[in-house]
Amino acid sequence: xxCYYSQGIAIPMQNFDEQQALDxxxxxxxxVIGVIYDRYFPEVYRYVRYRLTDEQVAEDVASDxxxxxxxxxxxxxxxxxxxxxxxxxxxxxxxxDHLRRSYRRPTETLPENxxxxxxxxxxxxxxxxxxxxxxxxxxxxxxxxQDVLALRFGQGYSLEETASVLKKKINAVKAxxxxxxxxxQRNIGEVANENE
Length: 196
Prior knowledge:
The protein is mainly alpha-helical. The protein has helices at about 20-25, 30-50, 55-75, 85-105, 120-140, 145-155, 160-165, 170-195; strands spanning about 5, 10. Helix content is about 70%, strand content about 5%. The chain has a two-stranded antiparallel ribbon. The longest helix has 25 residues, at about 170-195.
């Protein structure tokens, strides 16, 4: 059974208390830090992976979030009340920084074994083409629009959770989501027209 330690007492993971975790983080308790990592890394990674296509880069970015958590906690600037929101907000900023850098220096990776497109079955080719069109259209959205779609559909967050992470009101999140989906639909149509 996975446990974490608070004031020297082993506490089962299902009884995870965020306030105790925040207290342990402020004390730089290594057991609590490990539990925070175990509890939140999968969620942070899923969010990053939804935004970035490269699995290795996604792992690096997700790990960097926890390095920043430790650095902020050591300096007394770590999260004060909502650990999950702090982690996802920091994740959003790191992903945005990464995307900004990659837009300035774009690179195109080639598959290790470059296949003749004629040898790929038609359905697989169509699926890959749709995925490419979606990614291109998604990249055209604003970072805020990408964030709301990643949280709502990539992470499956409720409107309330998304509003907490983005530090917005629920109605603002609804409007942002609506505009993001409309822009995505418009962008997909533009990408498809470019390819014809």
